[in-house]
Design a protein that fits this description.
The chain is an alpha/beta fold. Helices cover 43% and strands 18% of the residues. It has one domain (3-250): Vaccinia Virus protein VP39 (Rossmann fold, 3-Layer(aba) Sandwich). The chain is globular, with a radius of gyration of 17 Å. Bound molecules: S-adenosylmethionine. S-adenosylmethionine binds next to helix 1, helix 3, strand 2 and helix 5.
Length: 254
C-alpha cells in the first residue's frame, strides 16, 4: 500500500469516528492524562505559538492552549477538526485549524513554534518516516527554548500486559460500546521506543521528561471513584513497563 492509500484509509477512519471520538476516547482518558502529563504540565512555559500535529478533536490544544497567543492545529480529518472547533469554542479558545496532511504541512510552514505537540499521531505514519518527521518538527521549534511533547503507544512485549489491566479494560466503555467497529481500522502500530529516542537524538533534541503508563479505560461516564482509584493503582503498580509513553524534549539550553 502506498502512502496515498495509507493516508486515505486513515482519513476515512478518523472521519467515521470523529463525532464520537472525544466522548469515547479523549474524555475518559482524563484520569490517565493527569498521571501521564502532570510533570510536563509544570514544565511547559507560556509563549507565542503552539502547533498541534494530528490535533484530532483538540485534546492538546484544550490542555495547553491557554498558555499561548496563537494556536494552530493540523489534521487531515474534517470531522475531527469540526469536533475540535466545537470543543475549543466551548472553552473560549481560538485556533487556526488546518485540514491538511501533517507531513505536507510541516514541510510548508516556516513558523517557529514555542511548543509543538504530537500526541497519538506518529503511530499513524510509516515507521521509516518517523526520523524525518521528528527532524522537521525540531527545526520548527523556536531556539533555544522550544519544547516538543510526543506521546504515543509504544511496542512492548505483549506478555508484559498485567492480567489485571487486560481484565479491567475488557469491561471498559470503549469495548462495551463497540466503538469504531463499523469502520475498517487504519494501518497503525505502536512505535519503537528506541526509534523514537534515536530520532530525537538525531534531531538534536534533549529529553527532559519521560513518563510511561498502560492504557487503562474507565467503566463509567463520567468515571466513578473506582475508575479513578483503579487507574491510579495500575499506573503506580505497573506503569514503568507501560505501553504508552510521553516525552517532553527541548532544543537545548534548559
Ligand atoms: C489517535 S488520533 C489523536 C488525536 C489527538 N492528537 C489526541 O491526542 O486525541 C490521531 C489523529 O491524527 C490524524 N492524522 C493521522 N495521520 C495524519 C496525517 N497524515 N495528516 C494529518 N492528520 C493525520 C487523524 O486524523 C487523527 O485525528
Amino acid at each position: 500500500m502506498d502512502w496515498q492509500q495509507h493516508r486515505d484509509k486513515d482519513k476515512r477512519y478518523h472521519d467515521a469516528i470523529g463525532a464520537e471520538y472525544h466522548q469515547i476516547v479523549v474524555t475518559p482518558r482524563a484520569i490517565l492524562d493527569e498521571l501521564l502529563f502532570r510533570k510536563i504540565d509544570r514544565i511547559v512555559r507560556a509563549g507565542n505559538r503552539m502547533l498541534d500535529i494530528g490535533c484530532g478533536t483538540g485534546h492538546m490544544l484544550l490542555r495547553f492552549g491557554s498558555f499561548f497567543r496563537e494556536l494552530t492545529g493540523v489534521d487531515h480529518s474534517r470531522t475531527m477538526l469540526n469536533a475540535a472547533a466545537d470543543n475549543l469554542a466551548e472553552k473560549n479558545l481560538k485556533a487556526e485549524l488546518i485540514e491538511d496532511d501533517a507531513l505536507q504541512f510541516i514541510t510548508k510552514t516556516a513558523q517557529p513554534y514555542d511548543f509543538i505537540t504530537c500526541v497519538g499521531f506518529l503511530h499513524h505514519v510509516p515507521p521509516d518516516t518517523i526520523p524525518s518527521v521528528v527532524k522537521r518538527l525540531a527545526r520548527l521549534l523556536s531556539s533555544p527554548t522550544g519544547h516538543i511533547l510526543i506521546a504515543e503507544p509504544i511496542e512492548v512485549d505483549a506478555s508484559l500486559l498485567p492480567e489485571a489491566i487486560a481484565n479491567w479494560n475488557e469491561l471498559s466503555l470503549a469495548v462495551r460500546n463497540r466503538y469504531s467497529r463499523a469502520v475498517e481500522d487504519p494501518d497503525e502500530a505502536p512505535i519503537s521506543r528506541d526509534l523514537l529516542y534515536d530520532s530525537l537524538h538525531e534531531a538534536g533534541l534533549k529529553v527532559l521528561v519521560e513518563k510511561r503508563t498502560w492504557e487503562v479505560f474507565p467503566h463509567n461516564d463520567p468515571p466513578s471513584l473506582k475508575d479513578k482509584m483503579m487507574t491510579r493503582y495500575f499506573k503506580f503498580r505497573y506503569g514503568f513497563s507501560g505501553n504508552v509513553m510521553a516525552v517532553l524534549a527541548t532544543v537545548g539550553g534548559d
